[in-house]
Design brief:
It is a single chain. The protein contains five helices and nine strands, in the order αβββαβαββαββαβ. It is an alpha+beta fold and about 140 residues long. It has a single domain, classed as Trna Endonuclease, Chain: A, domain 1. Strand 5 and strand 6 form a beta hairpin.
Length: about 140
């Protein structure tokens, strides 16, 4: 079972990937303060608007073929957008409410992570084809 430190490290990887990706397109990125729980990971100031983002890095998807969508995390988040990054370099964004509602209704669920939390396991090829999931 992964430790909290391992889960935190994966979260940091996701944050770094999305920060660099948005900054490389000229967006201004404001990161949440470290050490405090924040209801989002970063705020993106783009030419088309400003939005908050919850960043995820799904390392296990490479071996399992599934994207893990944790309900509790997305329920607590107040981010407008969720970003998922994968070891193969793929990055995708979607509205938090849409992926949360989809995951809650998804039939394949497991207890994952540390501490153990319920999650939907969606095959990656199905996930990236969802109409509200956008590659970036």
């Amino acid at each position: 079972m992964p430790s909290f430190a391992h889960s935190k490290k994966k979260g940091d990887i996701g944050e770094k990937i999305f920060k660099e990706k948005f900054e490389s397109t000229g967006c201004k990125v404001i990161m949440a303060k470290r050490g405090n729980f924040s209801s989002w990971d970063m705020v993106i100031m783009a030419p088309f608007g400003t939005f908050s983002l919850e960043a995820k890095y799904d390392e296990a998807s490479e071996g399992t073929g599934n994207v893990c969508i944790e309900f509790e995390c997305l329920c607590k988040s107040e981010a407008h957008i969720v970003g998922y990054a994968f070891p193969d370099g793929g990055t995708y964004i979607m509205e938090r409410e849409k992926i949360l509602n989809y995951a809650i209704c998804y039939p394949k669920k497991r207890w994952v992570g540390y501490p153990r939390r319920p999650a939907a396991l969606i095959p990656k090829q199905e996930f990236i084809k969802l109409h509200f999931v956008k590659p970036i």
